[in-house]
Amino acid sequence: MKSLSPIILALDTDDISVAQSWIELTRESIDIYKVGLEFFLKHGATGLQRLRESSNFELFLDLKLHDIPNTVSGAVASISHLSPRFLTVHAAGGAKMVQAAVDKRPEIAITAVTVLTSLDQEQLLAMGVALTPIDYAIALAKNSVAAGARAIVCSPLEVEAIRQAVGPGIELITPGVRPLDAEVGDQSRVMTPQDALSAGANYLVIGRPITSYYQKSSEAMRERAIEIRESLR
Ligand code: C5P
Q1: Where are the domains of the chain?
Q2: Which of 38, 84, 196, 213 could anchor a disulfide with 220, C-beta 3.0 to 4.6 Å?
Q3: Which is the closest atom of ligand 1 to the Cα of 116?
Q4: Contact at 8 Å (CB) between 232 and 32?
Q5: How far does the centroid of ligand 1 lie from the alpha carbon of residue 174, in Å?
Q6: For 195-229, what is each residue's pLDDT tens digit?
Q7: CB under 6 Å to ligand 1: residues?
């Protein structure tokens, strides 16, 4: 089987036709596309199915589920016809919640989101968490993997430590990567895509470093995706 591109393109738009164009323009260098709350809450499963009818791609469904196990189990059942390759849940929901998601659809890689990179040590303390963000992320990752999670979302700066903690069989997915020539934007702790892969990441979630080229031209976006893909070979 052909190995998948390590790039996961974030379809951060609420416009179905824009999302369709982004997929068409990048499909030769990208296999997995991330659909998150912005798109899903507006267009729902029906909108997502429309996207998939126009182009065949692997789905990273980023719904960050976080509720009691019974409710999460029901949510997983409700989206299972979309056959996502990855489905995110919050690791902070606990082992029983993660396990409920896994048990409902074992064929989906339940993907645990550890500590949001928007949370710093001060905010964690205020929430009653005395661990450093990285130690908390490691604890959440281990707990989720023990409950059956097959993938972890973490900051690129935590990839090395989490890889050590969870071993080689778990897929590590990291946002917050920026090619050297890209604008950092609102991301504060970033790493280059090459460095994140060297640190042990399997997949990189990339949005604006590729999608912002769409404003220049379709061809510019297509070439940008190819350029980043080629730099990772
Ligand atoms: O445009 P950019 O490359 O920053 O997009 C990164 C994607 O990864 C966005 O969809 C964003 O919501 C997501 N993400 C992130 N940082 C996290 C978790 C998810 O940037 N800690």
Answers
A1: 7-231
A2: 213
A3: 21
A4: no
A5: 9
A6: 999 999 999 999 999 999 999 999 999 999 999 99
A7: 10, 12, 36, 116-117, 175-176, 187, 205-209
Q: Which CATH fold would you assign to the domain 7-231?
A: TIM Barrel (3.20.20)
Tally of CB atoms within 10 A around 74: 12
- Dihedral sign for Cα 30, 34, 39, 45, please: positive
pTM for the structure as a whole? 0.96
| Per-residue model confidence as pLDDT tens digits over 68-116 | 999 999 999 999 999 999 999 999 999 999 999 999 999 999 999 999 9
Could you give the residue numbers annotated as active site?
64
Nearest residue to 37 (alpha-carbon basis) of 113, 95, 98, 108: 113
pLDDT band at 182 (very low <50, low <70, confident <90, very high): confident
Q: How far apart are CA 5 and CA 24, in angstroms?
A: 15
- Determine contact, residues 52/84, Cβ cutoff 8 Å: no
